[in-house]
Amino acid sequence: MTLALPLLHTGEGLTIDSLYRLLQCLLKPTVAVLYPLAVLATHREELIRRGLLGLEDVWKGDWRVKVAVGVLGLAVGIKVNDWLSSGARNNWARDSSWDWEKEVVVVTGGSNGIGRVLVDKLSRKGIKVAVLDVVEPAPRLLPGSRFYRCDLSKKEQVDAAALEVVKLLGHPTVLVNMAGIVRCKTVLDSSARDIDLTYDINVKAHYYTAQAFLPEMIKQGHGHVVTIASNTAFIQAPLGVSYCSSKSSALSFHEGLTLELRHTYTPTSLARRIRTSVVCPGHVKTDMFTGLDQGPWMPQWAMPSLSVDTVAGLVERVVLSGESQYIIEPLAAKIMPWLRVLPTWVHAFVHSLAKDAMTGVSQVQKEKGVGVEKKQL
C-alpha cells in the first residue's frame, strides 16, 4: 500500500501536514466503521424494541447516521482506490522473497546529505550497502557499507564500480539513484559545463546505473529501482531552470522505466516483478539549497521544509517495503501536479509566488564560487 509519514511524526513541528495525517488516520475503514456504530448506539433501546423497523426510522430521522455512513463509504472508497493503485504500480505481481540479510543496496550520492543518512539507517539494520560517489564519506561509513569512488557522469566509471560491487558484495537488488546537483543560474548565464554537469548527474547517471545493475535484477525477477526526483519536477523557478527540468526528466525516466519493465523486457513474468519507486520531496534542509526563500505566501506551517532525516526515513521505508511507491511530500507539494490541468492564469499566479525562491541560493553559490569556470593560466 501507499506509504506516508507516521501519524506522530514531528520532524517538522506542528504543521498542516500534522492535521492531514490525523485525517488520514480517521478515514481508515477500521476507524470509520465506528462512526455509524456510535450513532446507532444512541438509539439502542429503539433498535432492540423494533429491530429492522427501528433501523429504518433511525435512518430517516437522524441525519447523523447518513453522515456517518457517508464517511464510512468515503473511507472504503479511498481504501479501494489505494489497493487498485498499489496493484497497478506493482504490475499485479507479488514478490515475497525479500531477505534483508542477503539483499545488496546501491546508493548513489551516499557520501553526504540525504544519501549518507539513508546509508547509515540501512547499515544499522544489517543491510549491505554500496555507496557510489565522487566524494569520500566523512566520517567513515558504518560496518557493512562500502565506498566506491565513482564519477557518475562517466559511464565507464559506473560500469567499473558495478563490477567491483558485484565482486565484493554480490549482485545488487536495490538501486537508489540519490545523487543530484544544482546550479542556480539563468538560462543565458548557464555555461555548457553547468548544463552538462546538471544533466549528467541528475539524469544520465540514472541510465548508466540502470544499465549496470538492472539486467541481473530482471534475470532473477527480483529488484527495486528507486528514483529521487523533486516537487520541482512539476513546477519551474527562475534561476533553477536546469535543475527543475532535470528533475522532470528524472520523473519521466522513472515512468518510462516502469512501462518498459511492464511491457518490453523479457521474460515478462520476471521483469514485471521488478519494483520501481519515485520520491518527490519538497524543499529539504540541505547545504545544496542554503538560501532558498519560499516567500511569505508559503509559511512553514503550510509548506514545511523537510529535514534530511525525514526524507531519508521515507526512502528507507520505500526500500524496506519491497513494493513500488509514488511519494510526494509535504501535503502542499501534492498539489503541484494538479497545476498542469488548471487554467493558465492560475498556473502563472502560482509560479509568480516562487519567482524569487532561488535568488538566495544563487547568491550563496556565487559567494562560494560554485559553478565558476576556472581559467587555465
Automatic annotation (TrEMBL):
This is Short-chain dehydrogenase/reductase 3. It is found in: Membrane. Its main location: membrane. It holds the Pfam family adh_short. It is a multi-pass membrane protein. The keyword Disulfide bond does not apply. Keywords: Lipid metabolism, Membrane, NADP, Oxidoreductase, Transmembrane, Transmembrane helix. Belongs to the short-chain dehydrogenases/reductases (SDR) family. The keyword Membrane applies. Gene3D superfamilies: NAD(P)-binding Rossmann-like Domain (3.40.50.720). Signal peptide: none annotated. SUPFAM superfamilies: NAD(P)-binding Rossmann-fold domains. One of its GO terms (molecular function) is all-trans-retinol dehydrogenase (NADP+) activity. PANTHER family: PKSB, RETINOL DEHYDROGENASE 10. Catalyzes the reduction of all-trans-retinal to all-trans-retinol in the presence of NADPH. GO terms for cellular component: membrane. It comes from the Eukaryota.
